[in-house]
Amino acid sequence: MITPMLDSRKHTVLEAIVDCYNRTAEPVSSQKIVRDYDMGLSAATLRNTMADLEELGYLTHPHTSAGRVPTEQGYRVYVDSLMTAQKLSQRERQFIRDGYASSRRDFEEIMEQTSKILSAISHHIGVVLSPELHESILRRLELISIDSEHILAVLLMASGAVKNQVVSIPKDLSDEELYRINRILNERLAGLPLKQIRQISQDPVKLKAVFNRPLSDPIATVTRNTFALEQETHVYIDGTSNFFSHPEFGEVQKIESLFRVLEQKEQIADLLSSQQEPLGIQVLIGSENGCEGMEMCSVVRSSYRVRGNQFGTIGVIGPTRMVYPRIVSIVKFTSQMISELFEESL
Amino acid sequence: MITPMLDSRKHTVLEAIVDCYNRTAEPVSSQKIVRDYDMGLSAATLRNTMADLEELGYLTHPHTSAGRVPTEQGYRVYVDSLMTAQKLSQRERQFIRDGYASSRRDFEEIMEQTSKILSAISHHIGVVLSPELHESILRRLELISIDSEHILAVLLMASGAVKNQVVSIPKDLSDEELYRINRILNERLAGLPLKQIRQISQDPVKLKAVFNRPLSDPIATVTRNTFALEQETHVYIDGTSNFFSHPEFGEVQKIESLFRVLEQKEQIADLLSSQQEPLGIQVLIGSENGCEGMEMCSVVRSSYRVRGNQFGTIGVIGPTRMVYPRIVSIVKFTSQMISELFEESL
DNA sequence: CTTAGCACTCGCAAGAATAGAGTGCTAAAA
DNA sequence: TTTTAGCACTCTATTCTTGCGAGTGCTAAG
């Protein structure tokens, strides 16, 4: 628990500074700590300790005569070994539960609702990443005729996700034949992950092996066209305007770079999924998130689990100066909630 | 063409001021006009004319020693009777067409792509409102079993839109029975607008009349649950970060109120659909849009048409100081494009 | 090792001075 | 009668100065 280089006083002081800075968004002076934190030390002593912490790289000075501000490294230590978990209040838990109560529990709605809940309760940005479609297991497939050249393929996944896709078909395919194809596809492909189905459908040898039919058969064509899917995850974002209330984003410039990033959904998807380990909670502090234009933001993320042993990610994006214990608890609890939801329903 | 109260000189001057202000975002002085617009008049004369225009309510002064800025009323006159339509260049038309080329032409993708195209080419915010689901005509309905208590209802609309919905069903409904119900529902309900179907499904008398079965019959339950749909339109927004490049949004405050509105999709939906007349283009200048927090923005919108005689709306939201002729042409052309797309495909 | 005291640094806010852009008005010119 | 040159006046934006206050670092005493 105790970082080797830091004695217990340095710990306490660093924690106090992080805490104070998080609340005020202003550099913390030695005076301020004496006044607010009653730790039985004089300002001068604190100044010495603070100077030490600065030398170790945990604090900085905006300028000579200003108070101290935690560095990313300082936050790192704080998050890893200083902060004490802050349990969510009964109220807050209830708020999260209520958020899901109204939803009709379909897949998309849960995703959307989650991003809303996360942002509403954290007062930061809530983000949800759906599980990668390719990893999903096909539960069932339905082909619906649209016109003579197109059908709508409805892919129902084990996770509860649904993917609609318009597919071109060979002309003059009768309804009966379509129905027959539909039945065969379900027989042979249901239960397999999409990734594997895709491989089969693009590989003539495998395709032939699975269906035991010539490649010119309509069934081969339909399969090929239906499963020529791109990799795909959806990103749900909510609460972007919460950023305006933080004083450190007082200048348009800073907020601009952030918003430009947020509009690039792929970047956000990368941000949430990179080096994600299943079922752990992770905190990326400041530039650790590796996202250009988001250096002054931290990300708290966690994976969640849906049926079919698949994982998605939820997260909160906020200023580096966020109340980590609270946000961590929120993300943790919400990811549990959502995993449970997917377990019990659908 | 000529507004009664304004002689031809006032026209020219007003147009010049609007044009100049649109380009520079700064109050326009008499000097500036003499220099840039070669209209054979001295600065003093222009000042007189400008004073007249101000008295008529078409211009204002930020302060005594500043240049003139068009009022909303001024813009109104400009848009209604002064500006000359600016044809899109071949390049621009091609840009729009190319934007659709890649899309696989399913309903959602066209919507999404349209908002992207609009924002990319206008450098403002692109918005698309899908047709109201209730007005859509049901083309076909497919019921897919999920588990013993739920099915997935896939509603395929005449417009090409698809709506998935998880529906609770009576327990122990056999697959055969579900299939039978599915067939009957298609027979009786396909071709009707959802609104009407909803009425039928919620009204015991009508329900009985249509299906000629007791209300306890599973078919009645499934119908009721499937068509208990809320009114629903989707809003697609893109290009929000474009707003940062406009100098009039240099202060965080102004941009904040705008972004808070943009996060409220319902408000945007209202904004686009209120008093919309089919197939016309409309320009709402400044506070005319009636949306709190968007007083400094104008909206150029147009409806588009999908199969089944339904209408949706597309629009561009930008600062009041936008290049109206260009934006109007963009919106007009795009709405034609999208109508054509829906005509030919799907 | 801690702390009081003090000199020193630096940012920030308030004021003062200045420059300059633009207007309105008046009187002369067309 | 309309246009224009000229000029006084107004107001903003910029720059510079000044003073204040918050904070630190260092030193010497407790």
Structure description:
- The structure is a homodimer.
- Chain A has about 350 residues and is of the alpha+beta class.
- Chain A has helices at about 10-25, 30-35, 45-55, 70-80, 90-100, 105-120, 175-190, 195-200, 205-210, 220-225, 250-265, 265-275, 325-345, and strands at about 60, 70, 125-130, 140-145, 150-155, 160-170, 235-240, 280-285, 295-305, 310-320.
- In chain A, the strands form three sheets. Chain A has a five-stranded antiparallel β-sheet with strand order 7-3-10-9-8, sandwiched between helices. A three-stranded antiparallel β-sheet of chain A has the order 4-5-6. Chain A has a two-stranded antiparallel sheet with strand order 1-2.
- In chain A, a hairpin with an 8-residue loop joins strand 1 (about 60) and strand 2.
- In chain A, helix 5 packs antiparallel against helix 6, helix 6 packs antiparallel against helix 13 and helix 8 (about 195-200) crosses helix 9.
- The longest helix of chain A is centred in the C-terminal third of the chain and has 21 residues, at about 325-345.
- The structure holds a DNA duplex (30 and 30 nucleotides).
First-last Cα distance of chain A? 42 Å
| Biggest interface, chains and residue tallies | A-B, 33 and 33 residues
Low-confidence stretches of chain A: none
Helix content of chain A: 40-55%
Oligomer: homodimer
Total helix count of chain A? 13
Shape of chain A: elongated
Q: What are the secondary-structure elements of chain A, in order, as H or E?
A: HHHEEHHHEEEEHHHHEHHEEEH
User: How many whole angstroms does the radius of gyration of chain A measure?
Assistant: 26 Å
Major β-sheet strand ordering of chain A: 7-3-10-9-8
